[in-house]
Amino acid sequence: MIPKILLVDDREDNLLSMETILESENYSFVKASSGRQVLKILLNQMDFALILMDVNMPDLNGFETATLVYERERLRHIPIIFITANNYGDDNIFEGYRSGAVDYIYKPINPDLLRAKVSVFVDLYRKNSQLLAQEQRLIAINKNLELEIQERKASEEKVSALNLQLLQNVSRLESANKELDLFAFMASHDLQAPLRKIRMFSDRLLTDYQDKIDEDGQTYLVRIQNGCRQMQLLINDILEFSKISVKQELFREVDLNMVIDQILADFEEQIEQKQIDVVVEKLPLLCVNPVLMSPLFSNLIGNAIKYSRKDGGSSIHICADMHASIGPAPNNSAKNNYCRIYIKDNGIGFEQKYAKEIFDMFRRLHPGAEFDGTGIGLALCKKIAEKHGGTISVTSAVNKGSTFILSLPMVAQANEFVKIEKGNVNGLSDPI
């Protein structure tokens, strides 16, 4: 920005003389021939680096003009150098300084002296302008910082409010889940009483009044009994599912080989009937809830048997990987070491796109009379796996079989267990 200088003198030749002396310094000039004209110019222009003003002017002299100029707060930053041909003495010089003058230059003007003094004040003007600009930038930066702080505080308050709301929602959900589990347990328990009566009286009708009931009636009674058996399976599964949440856990070191042997013994008749080749490799000892291991593996093995090949040649292979891990394992921490157990079959399988859906409650990929079930078994397996801090997943293909992958922690985590004891699978007979 080119510095502006206001030249004030009632004589045109004096104005021209000052402009000529200073024109080589790249200044911009505004000229005034009277004090009144100075005041008029300063109404609209205030960005002057310096005012060079003659003292002896008609109407308003230089001292009076300077006094009126400095009455305005916004003009007090402009320095005034008086130019005069007279030596007024100390009293008059003091009056000039009191009116706001910063210096005097006497006529005839010494060009070098004028250029030197103007240069000093122009340099001060430039530095002041830079300081003002820097101050404005700092003010703007501080304002932006204040806005950022306010926004951050607002965001933190919003996050705190959301966290509080989330905690409240979690608490409500946990309470609702407990109530739902308890309701499912009580409802399933209460449903068994009328169901037993239906089964009992339908059995009596078939036994005691068989000769009096025609063939259609007997068919209807058989359907009633089948429906009752299916309802009983559903109630039992719901009870099993709900008990996982309401009971107290008891974890022990369990030999999974003994668990599998007991389950295979229970399925022995079906395995022989379908001629399924079962291979079980050595399984580890894990610290688990022994009561939950039985329904977990019973559902997985039972599914492999249920959905085996119809044309024979069926097989089930159970094995374990002792060095698997889930997620990051800093410092090779034992908490992240998992035993991965595979239950493989070569049965009818299903499309892989349903791999997650089959673990949902009441989800069945093969509905109908051909395969019985309630659609709760795999949901129960998922819940048991998660209860142990593990996971369960499946890979499958149509007519090529399925592989269920059960991952359980190698070391029990304290916050997951109420009590850890060493024992054996005798605990399998404990009530849930």
Write structural notes for this entry:
The structure is a single chain. By secondary structure, the chain is α/β, with parallel strands linked by helices. It is 50% helix and 18% strand. Among the domains are: 4-109, Rossmann fold, CATH 3.40.50; 248-429, 2-Layer Sandwich (Heat Shock Protein 90), CATH 3.30.565. The chain contains 10 helices and 13 strands. A 5-stranded parallel β-sheet has the order 2-1-3-4-5, with helices on both faces. Strands 7-9-10-12-11 form a 5-stranded mixed β-sheet, covered by helices on one side. α2 packs parallel to α3 and α7 crosses α9 (290-306). The protein is rod-shaped and about 150 Å long. It starts with a strand and ends in an 11-residue tail after the last strand.
According to CATH, what is the class of the domain at 248-429? Answer: Alpha Beta
Q: What structural category do the secondary elements indicate?
A: alpha/beta
Overall shape = rod-shaped
Biggest sheet details = 5 strands, parallel
Q: Would you identify the CATH architecture of the domain at 248-429?
A: 2-Layer Sandwich
The N- and C-terminal alpha carbons lie at a distance of 89 Å
Write the layout of secondary structure elements.
Blueprint: E1 4-8, H1 12-22, E2 28-32, H2 35-44, E3 48-54, H3 62-70, E4 80-84, H4 90-98, E5 101-106, H5 111-208, H6 215-246, E6 251-255, H7 256-266, H8 268-274, E7 277-280, E8 285-288, H9 290-306, E9 315-325, E10 337-345, H10 377-387, E11 391-397, E12 401-409, E13 420-421
Parallel strand pairs: 1-2, 1-3, 3-4, 4-5, 6-13, 7-9
Antiparallel strand pairs: 6-8, 9-10, 10-12, 11-12
